[in-house]
Specification:
The structure is a single chain. The protein has seven helices and eleven strands. By secondary structure, the chain is of the alpha+beta class. It has one domain: 2-Layer Sandwich (SSo0622-like fold). Strands 5-2-6-8 form a four-stranded antiparallel beta sheet, with helices on one face. It is elongated. It catalyses: 4-demethyl-7-[(3S)-3-amino-3-carboxypropyl]wyosine(37) in tRNA(Phe) + S-adenosyl-L-methionine = 7-[(3S)-3-amino-3-carboxypropyl]wyosine(37) in tRNA(Phe) + S-adenosyl-L-homocysteine + H(+).
Length: about 230
């Protein structure tokens, strides 16, 4: 069996499994993106989250919350209200932490060149302790301030998901057109090689047109995409 057939088999097996997430389904804001990737021969998704605000109750190691050892007091994929957080905090027995987690997507890729299209880093998060051993350590005014920040991040996160989807869609369309016209591919490869020789430290794969560069020039820290390449020994 060739590697393409092996990847298709692996993809079919993974996509046929039950969704084991807490919600049990794909978040509405990323359904279109997930479906789009799963229709492409060279990709499939294994997990995703559109972004969420959480209140966790558990131990803290510095500012890093170990979620597997925590109680989930509150979780929402929508803007959060202060009253909901105050009510949830009353259930806290340990160290409660408010978090905003941005969009994250885990993708399996058939080849390294496919993974390069999806490479994105993420720093768009928020994590703040609110209580210690069940005792509230901040004022309600500060909680209100934090929620305003978290809700703004949630709204910006939705915009970035849309921009990422549009960018990815365009990149894959360009790749398809290039594969259909080998002369274009040869010309592009020649041009890229020439630029790399002249200025290797600035050479990098681009998934957007020049018109999109200015809009997305600061968006390399927007989203979290975890990529795995199809293993040789599968």
């Amino acid at each position: 069996m060739d590697r393409s057939a092996e990847f298709r088999k692996w993809k079919a097996q993974c996509l046929s499994k039950a969704d084991l997430s807490r919600k049990g389904s794909v978040d509405k804001d990323v359904v279109e993106l997930v479906q789009f990737l799963n229709t492409r021969d060279q990709f499939f998704t294994t997990s995703s989250c559109a972004g969420r605000i959480l209140l966790l109750d558990g131990g803290i190691n510095g500012f890093e919350v170990q979620k597997q050892n925590c109680g989930w007091l509150l979780v929402t994929h929508k803007p959060c209200e202060k009253d909901d957080v105050i009510v949830a905090l009353k259930k806290a027995n340990g160290d409660a932490t408010l978090k905003f987690e941005p969009f994250i997507l885990h993708v399996q890729c058939q080849q390294l060149q496919d993974a390069r299209i999806l490479a994105v880093r993420s720093t768009h998060g928020l994590e703040v302790p609110l209580s210690h051993k069940g005792k509230l350590m901040v004022t309600e005014e500060y909680i209100d301030f934090l929620l305003n920040v978290a809700n703004q991040k949630m709204e910006e996160n939705k915009k970035r998901i849309e921009r990422f989807y549009n960018c990815l869609h365009h990149a894959l369309e360009r790749e398809t057109m290039t594969n259909l016209h080998p002369k274009i591919k040869e010309k592009n490869n020649s041009s890229y090689t020439h630029k790399k020789q002249r200025n290797p430290e600035k050479a990098h794969a681009q998934c957007i047109t020049k018109e999109n560069d200015k809009e997305l020039e600061n968006d390399d820290d927007d989203l979290g995409i975890n990529i795995t390449i199809f293993p040789e020994g599968y």
